[in-house]
Specification:
370 residues, mainly beta, Jelly Rolls, 9% helix
């Protein structure tokens, strides 16, 4: 079972909630009467197009107080900040029925299944992220008896932020007989202990555990997803559910890659001068190519792992040519341009990468002998 040094960022979704039938997510629901009155809380105003709420550095604002009984059916958030990690810096909190402790407390990005302050498109039944991270939509059903309070906090220490929002909900005339609540919590560990299982979630009471958003920052250019998943239910000492790997739990099967497109196992066999260090930024699928004419395109590309000894370092980006598939449709000639807006550097959680890799290999040998 391969392991790599990682920073785990965990968002656990724990629903103590009564679900509607799946048909409620289809057009068939339109043929049936619905209980309650449709309501909305939003940042919109009828006077001009300046509809977004503004957040100073460190500021918290209550964006909605919904008087129940009721049920939230849709949350739409369109945030923006010059802090490139704003999906991590903006935090969503939801409080049920006057509680002072939030039942939902997560960064925007992680709540919508994109960790590490990154941006990406997500298309799933409960959450959807569109326009490469510009629009967040949540369709989890969130019932409450008396009141729902929703707040947003800008936890960035660098930049202000703004957010357009719409909260669609249904107001009921009476409290439902059974109300179970939606919960989502965020955890992170820097860094997980090598060889020790990482506890994702401990829940008590009756409810439905519906999923986890798992994000990592690897200390080496290697796939981290070989660790198996274990579920211990109602005090079990032996897990009743055992998986075949983190990658399979998240519906994926990965392979190790580093900048340049090589498998790590092959790169380790090559002399340094023969390793391809060229980064290709061309998008052959032509997806998410929207350009913001003011700020440009906020697309990120990792450029590798490096040692930096004490002192001054210079990084030089040189465009050496175009991908063969990149051409101007009118002239048929190569068509390319390149600029870099932001350089983001993250420190890995150990000093000697080579020593750590050696330790991992020794652990692998011990496991194979067992």
């Amino acid at each position: 079972m391969k392991k790599s040094k990682t920073i785990f960022l965990i968002l656990v979704l724990f629903l103590l909630i009564s679900f509607l039938p799946l048909r409620s997510q289809t057009l068939a629901a339109l043929t049936e009467p619905h209980e309650g009155k449709s309501m909305r809380a939003s940042s919109g105003n009828p006077f001009n197009n300046a509809d977004s709420a503004k957040f100073d550095i460190g500021e918290t604002k209550t964006i909605a107080v919904l008087k129940g009984p009721g049920k939230i059916t849709h949350i739409c958030l369109i945030p923006y900040s010059m802090d490139i990690r704003y999906p991590q810096a903006l935090v969503l909190r939801i409080y049920w029925d006057g509680s002072e402790i939030p039942s939902v407390e997560t960064p925007f990005g992680d709540f919508f299944a994109v960790g590490n302050g990154m941006r990406a498109i997500v298309n799933s039944l409960p959450v959807k992220v569109s326009s490469y991270g510009r629009g967040y939509n949540c369709y989890w059903q969130m019932p409450f008896q008396k009141e729902a309070k929703i707040t947003i906090t800008n936890e960035s220490d660098k930049e202000t932020a703004s957010c357009y929002y719409q909260i669609d909900w249904v107001k009921f005339s009476k409290v439902p007989e059974k109300v179970m609540y939606f919960h989502a919590s965020y955890h992170q560990e820097y860094s997980p202990e090598m060889g020790k299982p990482y506890t994702v979630f401990i829940g008590k009471g009756k409810g439905h555990y519906v999923g986890t958003v798992l994000s990592s920052q690897n200390g080496i250019g290697h796939w981290f997803g070989e660790g198996d998943d274990f579920f211990y239910i109602d005090g079990e000492e032996t897990p009743s559910i055992i998986g075949t790997g983190t990658e399979d739990y998240i519906n994926e099967a990965g392979e190790s890659q580093i900048a340049g497109g090589y498998r790590v196992s092959l790169v380790n066999q090559l002399p340094t001068e023969k390793v391809n260090k060229t980064l290709d930024f061309f998008n052959i699928y032509q997806k998410d190519e929207h350009e913001d004419y003011i700020y440009g395109q906020r697309r990120e590309r990792k450029i590798g792992l490096f040692y930096f000894n004490p002192g001054v370092h210079k990084i030089k980006l040189v465009c050496i040519g175009a991908n063969p598939l990149s051409f101007n449709p009118e002239t048929g000639k190569p068509d390319y341009n390149l600029s870099a807006d932001v350089l983001s550097i993250r420190k890995i959680p150990f000093e000697n990468m080579d020593a750590w890799i050696k330790e991992v290999m020794e652990l692998e040998k011990i496991k194979e002998q067992k």
